[in-house]
User: What shape does this take?
Amino acid sequence: MRIVFMGTPDFAVPTLEALVHAAHEVVCVYTQPPRKAGRGKKLQPTPVHQAAERLGIEVRHPASLKPQEEKDAFAALEADVGVVAAYGLILPQAVLDAPEHGCLNVHASILPRWRGAAPIQRAILAGDAGTGVTIMQMEAGLDTGPMLATVRTPIEHKTAGDLTDELADKGAQLMVGTLRELSNHRPLAQEDADATHAPKIDKAEARLDWSQEAEQVERQVRAFSPWPGAFFEYAGPEGLERVKVLGAQVAEGSGEPGAVLDDALTVACKTGALRLTRVQRAGKPAMDTADFQRGRAIPEGAHLSGEAPAHDNVR
Assistant: This one.
């Protein structure tokens, strides 16, 4: 098929590559514009942009598709179908309607649960037993279109990073299979009454909340790994510092929420406790907690703050 692909982050790259390997004609790739990144703040093309260049495919990165010239340029590609995976820009109705078979989206949840920008993180935070990928016929509403195919997977103790990689691969194969049998699929309307919303992640949500049950705090760690990284703040001898938590497990123990219960960094929660297994100081490499504690240790009896004092500088 003649395809226009639209995507931006690493999650979308496997789908683009799978379409090419399946011998579809990807005539153009749309992605978000390059953005400044790194210490030098140089413009960096998106992961999809880089993948498209490796594959020798034309790349376009308009800041918006709303201008009429952008709509006309898209329509001029005369695509059979548009394939969308985490593109990040709103598609006007004229763009949705331009391909013969419209636009199909790879969405990282089993719709109508977790419509929106952060379905993987929201599923983990909610304690869902499983999640998956839905191939959806796009329409004007936010992830409201009819469903063509789904695939499921258990969440278990996976991080958001683990699930993103897994669902990216599953979604790529599901999209290839859906296109192969496109004429045989019967779209299934979503039940709007069952819908839940997955808003974009705010970095402030990554602050660990010890006043929650240990199981919920552990979900925070997994939901925000690798980005933006769950964290706590500790007012030690050298001032207030922020420490990221990259791994943790529910443990036995009790005490005032936020209190460090032993030298292995087991922290009391509302009920139960959380043993921190992998942590990272600002500007330092990530390390196992045992190695962390052999350096500038956080002692038993310390309290890990939920809020930073306004007059202190965070290290």
